[in-house]
Amino acid sequence: MSLRRFSTQTLVASVLLLAGCKDREVVSYRAPRDSAPPHAERPKMAMAGAAQGQLPDGHPPIGGANNASAPGATTNDGGMAAAGLPAGAVSKNNALVWSAPAQWQERAPGSIRKGSYTVPGEGGAAGDLSITAFPGDTGGLHANVNRWRGQIGLAPIGDAEVEKSIEHLEANGLHIDFVEMAGTSGNPSMRLLGAIVPYQGETWFFKLTGPDSLVASQREAFRTFLSTVKAR
Fold first, then answer.
1. Residue 59 is assigned to a structural domain of this protein
2. Is 0.85 topped by the overall pTM?
């Protein structure tokens, strides 16, 4: 009798134990292992969109909104970019005047330039002469020379090398920093003749760019042109 009761109790306990184990297995099985909250997919979608050049609505542009060039960069009208300066910082003054060579063809200066000329060459080649002015020193002499170097594909150089590249001139009471540089890339390669003239808290830029041989042929004409620059 005792043995039968013990066996019965043991059997009941075993059944309950198995039932309890089965219940835990069911609970474990029903737990969603690979599902994720809806918001977990959003970063992935946003990253995928950014990789394809698309950003989520309202996302600011990557890299910032102001990627414009500093003063000295060429703009659509061939002038010197005013980006990086406060709005309206392009000089409104016309404090300097000059006399251009007869063969240079004057053009409308546009919104940034003070003067604009086409310098014709052989075989339809042409150079571009721009005259611009900005308040202040626009970064300083060395920075401006290196900006010009970058425009014709040259790497920046150190201050000592910049100083060696500058010829200091005087004309009509003005100090003129003259530079000449030739690019090593492009077909044809480019050359630049430039002059930087500080005057009454502003900086004036006189720049001739174009095919190497054409601009080189205009070196003396450009220097003569600089000698005519004077205060109004």
1. no
2. no
Exposure class string for 85-116: b at 16+ Cβ within 10 A, else e = beeeebbeeeebebebeeebeebebeebbbbb
pLDDT of 74 higher than 50: no
Averaged confidence pLDDT in the chain:
75
User: Given this model, what pLDDT does residue 186 score?
Assistant: 76
- 64 within some domain: no
Q: Which structural domain, as residue segments, surrounds residue 9?
A: 2-51
CB atoms near residue 220 (< 10 Å): 9
For residues 43 and 102, membership in a common domain is answered with: no
DSSP per residue over 37-91, as a string?
Answer: -GGGHHHHHHHHHHHTT---TTPPPTT-S--PPPTT-B-TTSSB--TTS-TT-S-
